[in-house]
Amino acid sequence: MGLLYYCRALLRTGTPVALLEIDSPAHTFTAMVTLLRMYAEVDSLAALVRNTREVLSLIIKLWVFEIWHTHLSTQLAEMFRDSYPPTSAGLLHFYLFTRRDPDSYSAMLDSALEGSLGRQGIALVALEHIRRNTVACTQYQKIPVENMRTNLLNLTCLHSTPLHSLLLSQNSVRIVTEALVVITSAPFDSANAETTADCVQQICEYLHKYIASDGLNSLNQSLEVGLLVGLLKAHPWLSVKKSAFDVFTALLAAHVPRYFIYISVLRQVHKSIDIIQQLGLKDAMPEVCLEVWHAFEKYAGVRLNLASAAELGLASCRGSECSEPSSMRCSGCWEAAYCSKACQMAAWSTHGAICTARMHGRQNGIPPDLGEEDIQFALRVAQHDFEENKAAICAKWTDDGKLPISAGIDYSMFPPTVGIDPPSVVREQMSSDAAIYTILPQGTTEKEYYMCDLGLTRGAGDPDDETIKVVIQMVGTQPVPAFFRVN
Ligand SMILES: [Zn+2]
Ligand SMILES: [Zn+2]
């Protein structure tokens, strides 16, 4: 009854102000959270809450108010000076997300917050819950890993709803990486080792799923805030949980190296390897983790060798007529880099529209096109790899023995695969009997295709094997020509 009383007070106007109409929002909040937590312990009461729409609506609102109301958070912080204040995150998880039916909880979120917040607002609240945990990690003696675990679980559940792209567009990957860095910077404490290991595993799984799903942007942001340092510092918890170690390995052995064809990624990796060296992080690592890291470093080294020192330095300023090294980024797209505020302001008249379009695209799950610098470098890598694989490709052509002939390297796979079956988008563009192509990943679903037509067409009466011989000879002796985009 008490709860329903509060619910009605809260839902009376339907606006967030209602909570503040009750004399002390922090006391009310604490009372409600505590009560609902107690109910969760008793099956019949928990079932009652789950089946009472008004109360579920209240829980969702509490979860939003906790973030949205500075007055409430200030009061809570005052009431709980030395410990982490009570939070509604666990209630949301227990009463809503254990329904295991994304459509039903998505509809409930929508109806509870109807008109007051919008989906973008809900995405922001979910991420702010995690960000506050991250800040709290440096604030309190005892790290709130328990809460962090719950918030990470909530985030994962929200990804099964239409909020998916909105979460990514609000830089969820960076926020989750920051959490990893903070958690793994704390000393190992056996009292919370299991929970921390759970967090590490969840973060690694999250990154494995989403680190590049809206393009290179999120991967680069993650690397920039210390992804590699965070992963290397995670080893004490990886030994607590074997499954966490497996995701760690998948990230470093394949998932991140797949993007080593892009200079923007290599630049960040190069910087991180330096930092890891300076911090002496490798010294403390156990052999199993070290093996994974050495393979990563070795593979990075192969690609870093193809880049010049200038390319690996700071990106140059996007300001018009300025090519100074830039150390600041546009906070809207996190893509354009500038040397100064003045350059950014001057460039806004042209960058503004691009920046807004990019953000809009990300919100709708469309990864932005690859940057020119990244494409040029990736095509250079492709040319290099073709040169290395020439003999194998020519041998495959000889064995296959039919026209048209083509060969390509698919970098959306890891390790990259060399094949002689062109995808239809390339085949449609072939105007002669021979072509080579390459496939570059952009996000986890999009790909960009590049090809060069070798310009050889079978003359009248020429048998297949004659043409094949000519192509093999041409490819075997000449440098790989430049590629052009076909999709
Ligand atoms: Zn921008
Ligand atoms: Zn500049």
UniProtKB/TrEMBL annotation:
Keywords carried by this UniProt record: Metal-binding, Zinc, Zinc-finger
Residue ranges constituting the MYND-type domain according to the UniProt record: 317-355
Presence of the UniProt keyword Nucleus in the record: no
PROSITE patterns: ZF_MYND_1, ZF_MYND_2
Keyword match Zinc-finger: yes
GO molecular function, a single term: zinc ion binding
This protein's name: MYND-type domain-containing protein
Source species of the chain: Mycena maculata
Lineage: Eukaryota, Fungi, Dikarya, Basidiomycota, Agaricomycotina
